[in-house]
Specification:
90% of the residues lie in helices and 0% in strands. With 72 residues, the chain is mainly α. It is elongated.
């Protein structure tokens, strides 16, 4: 992974963790806006990692729910 991807992934993790902890999803968008004002490349990478991590969470939740149903 490139330095840009490393930074973007770290920021995505931090922003999503903060949003989950605080309940304020706006922080994810605010970080994206800050990044876009200085580096469109970093912003694009960040937004991609946010989408990936959200998709991963949804997929894991579905798999967990299926596991719970088969255990019954």
């Amino acid at each position: 992974m490139s330095y840009t991807d490393d930074v973007a992934l770290d920021l995505a993790k931090l922003a999503l963790d903060d949003a989950a902890r605080s309940g304020d999803e706006k922080i994810v968008d605010q970080i994206g806006e800050i990044l876009g004002a200085s580096s469109q490349t970093l912003q694009e990478s960040y937004l991609m990692f946010v989408r990936v991590r959200r998709a991963e969470a949804r997929a894991r939740a579905l798999l967990d729910s299926r596991k719970d149903k088969t255990a019954e």
